[in-house]
C-alpha cells in the first residue's frame, strides 16, 4: 500500500524570514553599496525566495543603478555585466540581490556570481537579443564532446552560472523571453554553425534555487543544471510552441540532489529530461545524475515525454523519484531512451500517481535510440536498465498501453507495474508490445504482455523509497526587502 509522503509537508512550510535589509540603507556602508553618482534607484518593499537559511541578501541593487534601460530596444548586456561584477565583490559580505524592475530589458548572455539573487519584478521581461553576434562562443560540454546540434563549440547560454555556490533566480513571476523564433528558423534551415544556447545553464554549481519565474520561447533547452548539486526548481512556468525544436523544459544533467516541484511546462520537447553525458565522452567523464525528485509537475508536450531518462545517460542515472504528475497531452509518460554505445545504467527509478490524458504510449522504453556523437562510440558499451517501478497510474485516451523494447542479449529487468488503468482507444497495433524486457505487474488494465506477467496475489505494491533525499530537507524561506529610499 502507499504510505503518505513522510515529513515532506513540514519541510514545505514557508518560513517567514525577515531580514532588515533596511538597516543597511542610510549607513555609510549602505550608501557605498547602493549608489553610484550619488543616486540609487528607489525599490518598493517586496518579498523574495531563498533556499535554506542564509539566502537573504545584505546588499540590494537595481539594474538601473548600472545604466540599465528597460525600453525593449537598448542593449543591457553591459549593464548586467557591470552589475554582476560589482555585486560579486560583496559575495562574502552577506551576498547581493540584483533587481530587474518592470520593463523590457534587452540583453545578450551574461554570467551570475556567488551568493547572488537575480530577482525579476512581476512586469519585468528579460529579452534575449536576436543579434547572433552578441552570443559568445563557448566550449562544448566535456561529457558530450561536441555541441548537441552540431560538432564543435556552442553558443553561450543566455544566463549562465559557472563554478558558483548559492545562486538564486527568482521573482514575482517575471519573465525571461528567449525570443527563440529566429533560432528555430535558422536551426530548421541548417544555417547555424554552432549549437544553440540554453536559456539558463548552471555548470559546476552548488545550492541553486530557481523559483517563481516564467520562461518563454527559449532557443533550445530552458533550464540546464549540469555537473551541479543541491538544485531546487520550484513554481516556474515554461512556455514554448509545441512544435518548436528541442525546447526541453528542465534538464538535470550529471547533477545530484535535484528537486523539481510545482512546475507547469508546455514545450516542443520533453518537459523534463534527465541526462548524464553522451557515449564515449559521457563514459570518460563518468558523472551520474542521481537523487532526483520530481513532484507536482503539469506537462503538455504532444510529441515528447513528460519525463525522459536519457537518451544521453552515459554517466548513469540512478534514484529518480517522480510523483503526482499530470500530463494533459504528451507522447509518453516516464520514458527511458538509450542505445548500444551509451554504456552506464538507468536504475532505481520510482514513479507513482500519474494522471495522464491523450497520449500515444503510457509506458515507453527504447534500447535502440541511436543518435551517436560520432563513429567512435564503443559497441561493447551496453547500458544496464533495471529496477523501474510505476504505480497508481490513470491514463485516458491513449493509443497504446506500452512499447517496452530492451536490448537483445541485455534485457531491461526489474520492471514493476502496479495499479494502472489505461483507457486505450482505437488501437490498430498491439496494445502491449514487449521485447527484451522482464518484470512483474499486478492490477493493470489492459492485461500486460507475457514478459510483465500479472501476479494479482503476489504483488501488493511496487517499491517507492520512504527516506527523504538531502535536498528534501532544504526549506524555502521568504526574505523581505524593505523599501529603499533613493
Ligand atoms: C560598485 O561597488 C563599489 C565597491 O563595492 C561601490 O563603491 C560602487 O558604488 C558600486 N557601484 C554601483 C553602481 O553600485
Ligand atoms: C561566462 O563564463 C564562462 C565561463 O567562465 C565564459 O566562458 C563565458 O565567456 C562568460 N560569458 C560572458 C558573457 O561573459
Ligand atoms: C571550475 O571548476 C572545475 C571543477 O571543479 C575546475 O576544474 C575548474 O578549474 C574551475 N574553473 C574555474 C574557471 O574556476
Ligand atoms: C511569487 O510571485 C507571486 C506573484 O506572481 C507573488 O505574489 C509571490 O509572493 C511570489 N512568491 C515568492 C516566494 O517569491
Ligand atoms: C506566471 O505567469 C504565467 C504566464 O503569464 C502564468 O501562466 C502563471 O500562471 C503565473 N504563475 C503564477 C504562480 O502566478
Ligand atoms: C556560418 O558560417 C558561414 C561560413 O563561414 C557563414 O557564411 C554564415 O554566415 C555562418 N552562419 C551564421 C548563422 O553565423
Ligand atoms: C565511474 O565512477 C565510479 C565511481 O564513482 C566507478 O565505480 C566506475 O568504475 C567508473 N566508471 C567508469 C566507466 O570509469
Ligand atoms: C530497487 O531500488 C530500491 C531502492 O533503492 C532497493 O531497495 C531495491 O533493492 C532495488 N531492487 C533491485 C532489484 O535492485
Ligand atoms: C483523444 O486523442 C486524440 C489523439 O489521439 C485527439 O485527437 C482527441 O482530441 C482526444 N480526445 C479527447 C476527448 O481529448
Ligand atoms: C490505485 O490508483 C488509484 C489512482 O491513482 C488510487 O486512487 C487508488 O488508491 C490506488 N489503489 C491502491 C490499492 O493503491
Ligand atoms: C513490436 O516492437 C518491435 C520492436 O520495436 C517491432 O520490431 C515490432 O514491429 C513491433 N510489433 C508490432 C506488431 O508492432
UniProtKB/TrEMBL annotation:
The keyword Ribosomal protein is annotated on this UniProt entry: no
Entry's Gene Ontology molecular function annotations: polygalacturonase activity
Superkingdom of origin: Eukaryota
Keyword Signal in annotation: no
Alphabetical UniProt keywords: Glycosidase, Hydrolase, Membrane, Transmembrane, Transmembrane helix
Segments forming a coiled coil: none
GO BP term (any one): carbohydrate metabolic process
Membrane-spanning parts: 6-26
Listed PANTHER family: OS03G0124900 PROTEIN, PECTIN LYASE-RELATED
Family: Belongs to the glycosyl hydrolase 28 family.
Name the UniProt record assigns to this protein: Pectate lyase superfamily protein domain-containing protein
Organism: Musa balbisiana
Amino acid at each position: 500500500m502507499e504510505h503518505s509522503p513522510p515529513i515532506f509537508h513540514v519541510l514545505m512550510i514557508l518560513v517567514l524570514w525577515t531580514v532588515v535589509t533596511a538597516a543597511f540603507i542610510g549607513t555609510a556602508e549602505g550608501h557605498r553599496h547602493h549608489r553610484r553618482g550619488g543616486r540609487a534607484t528607489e525599490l518598493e518593499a517586496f518579498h523574495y525566495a531563498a533556499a535554506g537559511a542564509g539566502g537573504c541578501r545584505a546588499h540590494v541593487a537595481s539594474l538601473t543603478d548600472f545604466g540599465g534601460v528597460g525600453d525593449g530596444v537598448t542593449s543591457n548586456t553591459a549593464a548586467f555585466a557591470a552589475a554582476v561584477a560589482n555585486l560579486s565583490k560583496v559575495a562574502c559580505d552577506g551576498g547581493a540581490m540584483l533587481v530587474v524592475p518592470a520593463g523590457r530589458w534587452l540583453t545578450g548572455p551574461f554570467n551570475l556570481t556567488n551568493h547572488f539573487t537575480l530577482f525579476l519584478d512581476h512586469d519585468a521581461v528579460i529579452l534575449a537579443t536576436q543579434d547572433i553576434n552578441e552570443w559568445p562562443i563557448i566550449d562544448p560540454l566535456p561529457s558530450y564532446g561536441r555541441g548537441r546540434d552540431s560538432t564543435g563549440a556552442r553558443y553561450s547560454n543566455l544566463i549562465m552560472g559557472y563554478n558558483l555556490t548559492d545562486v538564486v533566480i527568482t521573482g514575482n513571476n517575471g519573465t525571461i523571453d528567449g525570443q527563440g523564433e529566429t533560432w528555430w528558423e535558422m536551426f530548421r534551415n541548417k544555417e547555424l554553425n554552432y549549437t544553440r544556447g540554453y536559456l539558463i545553464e548552471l555548470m559546476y554549481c552548488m545550492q541553486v534555487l530557481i523559483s517563481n519565474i516564467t520562461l518563454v520561447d527559449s532557443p533550445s533547452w530552458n533550464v540546464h543544471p549540469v555537473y551541479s548539486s543541491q538544485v531546487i526548481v520550484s513554481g516556474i512556468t515554461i512556455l514554448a510552441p509545441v512544435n518548436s525544436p528541442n525546447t526541453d523544459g528542465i534538464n538535470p544533467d550529471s547533477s545530484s540532489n535535484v528537486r523539481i516541484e510545482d512546475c507547469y511546462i508546455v514545450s516542443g520537447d520533453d518537459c523534463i529530461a534527465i541526462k548524464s553525458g553522451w557515449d564515449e565522452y559521457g563514459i570518460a567523464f563518468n558523472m551520474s545524475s542521481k537523487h532526483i525528485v520530481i513532484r507536482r509537475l503539469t506537462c503538455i508536450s504532444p510529441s515528447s515525454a513528460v519525463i525522459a531518462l536519457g537518451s544521453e545517460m552515459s554517466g548513469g542515472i540512478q534514484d529518480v523519484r517522480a510523483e503526482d504528475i499530470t500530463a494533459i497531452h504528451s507522447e509518453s509518460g516516464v520514458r527511458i531512451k538509450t542505445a548500444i554505445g551509451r554504456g552506464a545504467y538507468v536504475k532505481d527509478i520510482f514513479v507513482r500517481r500519474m494522471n495522464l490524458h491523450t497520449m500515444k504510449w503510457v509506458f515507453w522504453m527504447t534500447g535502440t535510440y541511436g543518435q551517436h556523437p560520432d563513429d567512435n562510440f564503443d559497441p561493447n558499451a551496453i547500458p544496464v536498465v533495471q529496477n523501474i517501478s510505476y504505480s497508481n497510474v490513470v491514463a485516458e485516451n491513449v493509443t497504446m498501453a506500452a512499447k517496452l523494447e530492451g536490448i537483445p542479449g541485455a534485457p531491461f529487468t526489474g520492471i514493476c507495474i502496479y495499479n494502472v488503468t489505461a483507457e486505450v482507444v482505437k488501437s490498430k497495433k498491439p496494445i502491449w508490445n514487449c521485447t527484451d524486457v522482464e518484470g512483474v505487474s499486478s492490477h493493470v488494465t489492459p492485461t500486460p504482455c507475457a514478459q510483465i506477467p500479472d501476479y494479482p496475489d503476489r504483488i501488493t505494491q511496487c517499491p517507492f523509497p520512504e527516506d527523504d533525499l538531502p535536498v528534501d530537507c532544504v526549506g524555502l524561506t521568504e526574505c523581505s526587502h524593505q523599501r529603499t529610499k533613493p
